[in-house]
Amino acid sequence: MFSKDQDQIIQEGLDFIDEEFDEGVSQALASLTEIGKGYLSERKELEAEQTVAFIKEIGKAAALQGMENAAVNAIRSLDKMLQCSMKQNMENTTVKVLLSFGTIGKIAVEQQLETVAKLAASMLGKSGNTAALLNKEKETIAVTIGLGEIGKAVARIKYPDVSENAAICISCLGDTGKLAAQRTLEEAAIGAEIMLEEMAVAAMEENLQSATGNIAASIEEIGKSAEEEEMENAVFQAASALQTIVSSAGNRYLNDASIAARVALDTFNELDIINNDDSIKRIEEIREMMKSLWVNLK
Fold it and tell me: 3-state DSSP helix/strand/coil percent for the chain, to nearest 5?
C-alpha cells in the first residue's frame, strides 16, 4: 500500500514536467528517492520496485518533454536506489533500476538528448563491471539489455558514425561481455554478444561502417575470452554474430566492416564455429528470456 503523500508527489512531479518546472521535478524526485531508500532499508522489495517504476516514469516524461536536467536528475535518483538495492542484495529491484536506465537512455537518444543518453549508458557500463565481478548474472544480463537498447537507438537515429554514445555502448558492452566470459557467466556473455549483433544490424542499416567494425572487434574479444574458458555456446554465438556481419556488410558494400568481421572470425578455431544444434537452441532460449525481461520490466 502506497501512501497518499507518495501518490501526491508522483502526480506533482508529472505536473511539474508539463509546466517545465525543473526545480519542482527535482524536489519530487528527491522525495521519491528517500521514500524508496526507506523501503529498501526495510527490505520491502515490492514497494521499492514500485518507487523505482515511479522515478522511471518521471524520467521518461522528462526526456519526452526535452527536459535534460530533469531526466539527468531521474537517472541520478535511480543510481541512488541502485546503490541501496545492491547493498541489500535485492536482485529484482536492481534489475528494475538497470532496465530503467536503458528505458530513459533510449528515449533520450530518440529525443536527441545526448548528455542524458551518455549518462545512462555510462551508469550501465559501470554497473555491468560491478555485477560481473560479483558473479551476479541476472543483473549483468540486465546491463547488456539496457546498453543494447540504447546502442540500437543511437544507430537508428542516424547520428554520425563517430557518435560518442555509439562508442560508449559498444565499449561498455564489450567490456561487460568480456568480463562475464572471464567469470564464466555464460548467459551474460552471450547476452552481450546478442546485443552487439543487434546493434551491428541496426548500424549496417544506416551504413555506419566504422561503428560496425568496432562492434566486430568487441564481439571477437568476448568470443576469445569465452574460448579460453571453454564456453562452447558463447564461442558459437560470437562466431555466428561475426558471420552475420561479414555477410550483411558485404551485401551493403561496407567493405571495411566486412573485412574487419572476417579478420575477427578467422581468429577462432574452425571446430568452434561448426553449426551446433544444441548451441542454437540454447542461444535462442537466452534471446527470448532477454526479450521477455525487457518487455515486462522496461
Answer: 85, 0, 15
Give the containing element (helix H, strand E) for 171.
Answer: helix 164-182
Residues 231-264 as b/e (b if ≥16 CB within 10 A, e otherwise) read bbbbbbbbbbbbebbbebbeeeebeebbebbbeb
Q: What is the tens place of the pLDDT at every residue in 241-269?
A: 999 999 888 777 677 888 888 888 888 76
DSSP state of 272: G
- 270 half-sphere exposure, CB direction, 13 A CA radius: 0
- Contacts (Cβ under 8 Å, ≥6 apart) of 220: 238, 242, 264, 265, 267
| pLDDT over 70, % of the chain | 93
Q: Output the CA–CA distances (angstroms, integers) from residue 47 to 5, 53, 88, 117, in the order listed.
A: 14, 10, 14, 27
Joined together, the cell numbers standing for residue 128 give: 555491468
Residue 271 has pLDDT above 80, yes or no: no
* Residue closest to 189 by CA, chosen among 149, 154, 229, 152: 229
Instruction: List b or e across 211-228, with b for residues whose CB sees 16 or more CB atoms inside 10 angstroms.
Output: bbbbbbebbbbbbbbbbe
Nearest to 298 by CA among 179, 148, 154: 148
Identify the top-confidence range among 8-17, 183-192, 234-243, 277-286.
183-192
| Most distant CA pair in the chain, distance | 63
Do residues 128 and 175 lie in contact, with contact meaning Cβ atoms separated by under 8 Å? yes
Task: Please give the angle made by the CA atoms of 114, 198 and 122, to the nearest 5 degrees.
Answer: 35
Give the tens place of pLDDT for each residue, 94-149.
Answer: 999 999 999 999 999 999 999 999 999 999 999 999 999 999 999 999 999 999 99
In eight-state DSSP terms, residue 270 is G
